[in-house]
C-alpha cells in the first residue's frame, strides 16, 4: 500500500531552483513581444491600410516553428483592433482539422458560435460564414494558423476552399471586406499546390519570420529566466551557453524556453544549487531527439522506409554508416519483405533528395577506384533513432510491422 504522506513529502520540491516555473511555459502569454520590431511594423502597415480603404486579400506569414509568428501577429492585431472600431480580428487554428469541410466549419464556429452539420456541404458553411460576417464591422482580418495542415481530402481540393474564401459569390455580393492572413511554416503555394485561378486572387504580401539569433533569444529569454528562477540559479556562462546552442541548433524560442525549464529540473534533481552547462547539455540532446522523432513519425511511408534502409546495416551490433544507394536498395529487397518495400533505385534516389532537403540525411560523392564514384549517405542524427521510432511508426502502418518483427 502506498504511504501517501511519504509519497507527497518525497516528491515535494524542497530545493527547487525555480520561483515561477510556469513563466517558462511556451504557452504562457509573455508580457511583451520582443525582437520582432520589423515584422510588427510590416503587420501594422498592412492593418493601417484601412485608412486608405484597402486591406490585402491575403497576407502570408511564414517562418520556421517557434519564431513568434502567432504571438506577434495576434498581439499586433489585437492592439490595433482595440484602438479601431471599424475592424475586427478573428483567430482560428486549423491544426486539428482533418478535412476542408471541418476547417470551414471551424471558421464558421469562431464567427457565429455554431457549427453546421455535414449535410450543409462546403457551400452551406460558406453561406453561414458570409451571413455571420455581415454583422461584423466594416473590415475583418481572419488569422488562419497552421494552414499547412490543410490537405487534399476526398471531397474537396484546397483550391476550392481558398477560391470560396477569397472569391466566394456570397462575399462579393454582400461587399464584405475580408483579409485572410495565413500563418504557416512554409510558403503557402509550395505546400498546397494551389491552382492558378486561386493564386491570382492571393496577394503577394508576405511577412517572413526568420529563425532567432543569439541576440534575439537573449531579449526573449532573459526576462523570463530571471522571473522563473531563484536569484543566481542560472549563472551567466550557463545562460550564454544555452542561448548559443539554442540559436545554433534551432533558432526556436519555444524550444529555448523548454531547454531552460528542463535544465532547471535536471539541476534540482541532482541537488545542485545552480544550473550547470552539463544540465543544459543533456537536455539539448533530449530536445534534439524528441524533435527528430516527431519528424520521423510524420514522414510519408516511403521516406521512412528508405531511412530504415539507410540505418539497417549493422556490423558487430553497431549501425554501419555511410551506405550507398545500392545498399539501401538491397536492404529493401530482402526476401522476407513484402512487395511494397521493393522500391526501384530511381525512386530511392528521389526520396533521398527529399530527405536531404529536410535535413535528415547528408550525402557526398566518393571515388571508389574501379567501382567508380559513389554517393555516400549518412543520417544527420543518431541512426538508432530510426530504429527507436519504428514501433510507433508501425502502429500507424501495417507494412512496417514486418520490419519490427524481423528486428525482434
Ligand atoms: N518575439 C517573442 N517575444 C516573446 N516571446 C516569444 C517571441 N517569440 C516566441 N515567443 C515565445 O515562444 C512561443 C512560441 O511562439 P509562437 O507560437 O508565436 O511561434 P510560431 O512561429 O507561431 O510557431 P509555430 O510555427 O510552431 O506555430 C510563444 O508563445 C512565446 O512564449
Automatic annotation (TrEMBL):
What InterPro entries does the record point to? AAA+_ATPase, AAA_22, Cdc6_C, Cdc6_lid, ORC1/CDC6, Orc1/Cdc6_arc, P-loop_NTPase, WH-like_DNA-bd_sf
Q: Which family does it belong to?
A: Belongs to the CDC6/cdc18 family.
Q: Is Metal-binding one of the keywords?
A: no
Kindly list the organism's lineage: Archaea, Methanobacteriati, Methanobacteriota, Stenosarchaea group, Halobacteria
UniProt function note: Involved in regulation of DNA replication.
Example of a GO MF term: ATP hydrolysis activity
Q: Which organism is it from?
A: Natronococcus jeotgali DSM 18795
Residues annotated as binding ATP: 67-71, 212, 224
Listed CDD domains:
AAA, HLD_clamp_RarA
For this protein, the record's PANTHER family field holds: CELL DIVISION CONTROL PROTEIN 6 HOMOLOG, CELL DIVISION CONTROL PROTEIN 6-RELATED
Gene3D superfamilies named in the record: 1.10.8.60, P-loop containing nucleotide triphosphate hydrolases (3.40.50.300), Winged helix-like DNA-binding domain superfamily/Winged helix DNA-binding domain (1.10.10.10)
**Residue span(s) of domain AAA+ ATPase:** 55-213
SMART domains in the record: AAA
Q: Does Nucleotide-binding show up as a keyword for this record?
A: yes
Recorded protein name is: ORC1-type DNA replication protein
- Keywords annotated in UniProt: ATP-binding, DNA replication, Nucleotide-binding
Q: Which GO terms describe its biological process?
A: DNA replication
In terms of superkingdom, the source organism counts as: Archaea
One of its Pfam families is WHD_Cdc6
Amino acid at each position: 500500500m502506498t504511504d501517501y504522506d511519504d509519497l507527497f513529502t518525497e516528491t515535494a520540491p524542497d530545493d527547487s531552483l525555480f520561483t515561477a516555473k510556469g513563466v517558462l511555459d511556451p504557452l504562457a502569454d509573455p508580457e511583451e513581444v520582443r525582437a520582432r520590431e520589423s515584422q510588427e511594423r510590416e503587420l501594422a502597415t498592412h492593418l493601417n491600410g484601412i485608412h486608405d480603404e484597402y486591406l490585402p486579400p491575403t497576407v502570408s506569414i511564414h517562418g520556421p516553428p517557434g519564431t513568434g509568428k502567432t504571438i506577434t501577429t495576434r498581439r499586433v492585431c489585437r492592439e490595433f483592433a482595440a484602438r479601431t472600431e471599424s475592424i475586427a480580428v478573428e483567430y482560428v487554428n486549423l491544426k486539428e482539422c482533418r478535412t476542408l469541410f471541418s476547417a470551414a466549419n471551424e471558421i464558421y464556429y469562431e464567427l457565429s458560435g455554431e457549427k453546421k452539420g455535414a449535410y450543409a456541404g462546403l457551400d452551406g458553411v460558406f453561406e453561414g460564414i458570409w451571413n455571420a460576417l455581415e454583422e461584423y464591422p466594416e473590415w475583418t482580418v481572419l488569422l488562419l494558423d497552421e494552414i499547412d495542415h490543410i490537405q487534399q481530402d476526398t471531397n474537396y481540393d484546397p483550391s476550392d476552399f481558398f477560391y470560396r474564401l477569397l472569391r466566394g459569390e456570397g462575399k462579393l455580393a454582400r461587399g464584405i471586406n475580408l483579409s485572410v492572413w495565413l500563418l504557416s511554416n512554409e510558403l503557402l503555394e509550395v505546400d498546397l499546390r494551389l491552382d492558378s485561378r486561386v493564386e491570382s486572387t492571393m496577394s503577394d504580401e508576405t511577412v517572413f519570420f526568420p529563425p532567432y539569433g543569439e541576440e534575439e533569444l537573449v531579449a526573449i529569454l532573459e526576462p523570463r529566466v530571471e522571473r522563473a528562477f531563484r536569484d543566481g540559479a542560472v549563472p551567466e556562462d550557463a545562460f550564454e551557453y544555452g542561448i548559443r546552442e539554442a540559436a545554433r541548433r534551432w533558432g526556436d524560442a519555444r524550444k529555448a524556453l523548454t531547454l531552460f525549464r528542463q535544465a532547471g529540473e535536471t539541476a534540482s534533481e541532482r541537488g545542485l544549487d545552480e544550473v550547470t552547462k552539463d544540465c543544459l547539455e543533456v537536455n539539448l540532446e533530449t530536445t534534439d531527439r524528441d524533435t527528430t522523432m516527431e519528424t520521423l513519425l510524420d514522414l510519408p511511408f516511403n521516406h521512412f522506409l528508405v531511412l530504415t534502409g539507410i540505418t539497417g546495416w549493422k556490423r558487430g551490433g553497431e549501425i554501419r554508416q555511410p551506405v550507398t544507394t545500392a545498399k539501401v536498395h538491397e536492404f529493401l529487397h530482402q526476401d522476407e519483405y513484402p512487395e511494397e518495400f521493393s522500391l526501384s533505385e530511381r525512386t530511392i534516389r528521389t526520396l533521398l533528395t527529399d530527405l536531404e532537403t529536410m535535413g535528415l540525411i547528408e550525402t557526398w560523392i566518393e571515388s571508389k577506384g574501379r567501382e567508380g564514384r559513389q554517393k555516400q549517405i549518412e543520417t544527420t542524427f543518431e541512426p538508432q533513432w530510426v530504429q527507436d521510432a519504428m514501433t510507433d511508426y508501425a502502429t500507424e502502418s501495417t507494412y512496417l510491422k514486418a520490419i519490427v518483427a524481423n528486428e525482434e
